[in-house]
Amino acid sequence: xxxxxxxxxxxxxxxxxxxxxxxxxxxxxxxxxxxxxxxRELTEAQREKFRKMSRDSREARRSALxxxxxxxxxxxxxxxxxxxxxxxxxxxxxxxxxSLFSGGGGLDxxxxxxxxxxxxxFELMDEAGDTLRKARSDWTVxxxxxxGDVRGIDFKPWRGKVDLLHGGPPCQPFSNAGRQQGHxxxxxxWPQFVRAVKEIRPxxxxxxxxxxxxxPKFSEYVSExxxxxxxxxxxxxxxxxxxxxxxxxxLRRRVFFVxxxxxxxxxxxxxxxxTHFWGDASTAGGQKCMGLRQALGLPDIGVDDLSPTIRSSxxxxxxxxxxxxxxxxxxxxxxxxxxxxxxxxxxxxxxxxVAKHGHFRLSVPDxxxxxxxxEDWPFVGATYMALGQIGNAVPPPLAYAVASSVLDAFxx
Length: 412
Ligand SMILES: C[S@@+](CC[C@H](N)C(=O)[O-])C[C@H]1O[C@@H](n2cnc3c(N)ncnc32)[C@H](O)[C@@H]1O
Hints:
Blueprint: H1 5-8, E1 25-26, E2 42-43, H2 44-65, E3 96-100, H3 106-113, E4 117-123, H4 126-135, E5 141-143, H5 144-147, E6 164-167, H6 190-200, E7 204-209, H7 219-230, E8 235-242, E9 253-260, H8 263-268, E10 276-277, E11 287-288, H9 292-296, H10 327-335, E12 338-344, H11 347-352, E13 360-363, H12 364-370, H13 383-392, H14 396-411
Parallel strand pairs: 3-4, 3-6, 4-5, 6-7, 10-11, 12-13
Antiparallel strand pairs: 1-2, 7-9, 8-9
Bound molecules: S-adenosylmethionine.
């Protein structure tokens, strides 16, 4: 009998509850556009339940957009949060960067704002590559199976041409929301990141991932697969940072491995200090971070808070337009009167499609803002694909803080 869908992953998916787990497993009819998407093993009855839900919600959205639904309640929001203000452009001179596993460009944007000149990005997904090209027509972007798959690239020609190599290999092998199979998971790309560092020999590197990779469960993995192969040539530091400490209106922790070829630079490096705080002003320094409602420019309802961690719609077993990843997150969104499912393509569509309880329906540009992307970052693809790129990203202001700290080490 197949595993019950709601137990297979830690992801919260209320719709996955099913009484229909009996019967043979049938393949998904959804075209898998994301190479590492792993569809659930479901019976025909279970699949039909999902299909019906999709049909119903498509029909509800269609009729709302045709003006047949309830009268819109909310005005179109005008956000207060402007991420570029949190990443003042720095001057890095001739220092160059190369990006692996670039996704929709969160890390790339933060590194660029910190002053590094982009030389190339490598990314498997075509749509993410298109996002990068659309955002920066002068960037060299290799994407898709043929040109963007890091596994097939010989990086030696880049040796001597890159000062900072950076990348966030897929986090699914380590994430609490996944099966945490580490090196047994075919999506584990850390060996490729390490190979690229060895072939390119940059002066510095930044490798990013979910904080679970820094947990005791993976300490052996990290020492054997990241530290041991590189520690002969690099001084490696590890730091876990919280996005809201850098002004992003979301709770999102990430681990960064920062490596330097020279001891001088390693000694000069200082981990980024928080610039913002949420909570008690008397015990914190810096400026107060905006809450989710303030950031999105929503009316004052007497409560505000940081957004729960948003999830990528590509990492679960189904491609969805929900950014919800836990029951706790659902409660938090409810208390903020924000609706995290059925995210709309744009603000006009979000306004037209009235959400349950009259809560504020999110749109792609709103979710991008919660993740620290500027309004005009042009995510390419259908709504779930844009949300996937957003949810996979390092919030650019957080990436900026780390890249800035590396730039400072170059300058000393
Ligand atoms: C966690 S996301 C990176 C997000 C990115 N750092 C950002 O801030 O926006 C990992 C990315 O690696 C890509 N990827 C996975 N395997 C790859 C491979 N073999 N070669 C190139 N890219 C790959 C995925 O498509 C995904 O976009």
